[in-house]
Design a protein that fits this description.
42% of the residues lie in helices and 16% in strands. By secondary structure, the chain is of the alpha/beta class. The chain has a single domain, classed as 3-Layer(aba) Sandwich (Rossmann fold). Helix 1 runs parallel beside helix 2.
Length: 103
């Protein structure tokens, strides 16, 4: 919801399965922003499934209250930024901007 208040074009989903269905129905995001813990499908699984559906290594941000190092090791994914929770809105917007300009 926060991102919808910014100048970004945002597509929201309540669950990982809903987000994946949007991608399979034609939505093609530039960056994935997800929580680590989602109902039914964890954020890491969502990133893997979206990348597989789009056949690309899409950049992703996973927000989590888990210890950053532990999450990074368990993720085993490249091009994933871990955003510790809680965080300030400005940090999320800045991270999205830096990743968008890097890619």
């Amino acid at each position: 919801m926060l991102l919808q208040l910014s100048v970004l074009d945002v597509e929201c989903a309540q669950t990982g399965f809903e987000a994946l269905e949007k991608v399979k129905s034609g939505f093609s995001p530039d960056i994935i922003v997800t929580d680590y813990r989602l109902p039914g499908l964890k954020g890491i699984e969502l990133v893997r499934e979206i990348r597989k559906a789009l056949n690309t290594k899409l950049t992703a941000i996973i927000a989590s209250g888990e210890a950053e190092g532990r999450l990074a090791r368990t993720a085993g994914l490249q091009e994933v930024a871990i955003l510790p929770k809680p965080t300030e809105a400005g940090k999320l917007i800045a991270l999205i901007g830096s990743l968008a300009h890097a890619g």
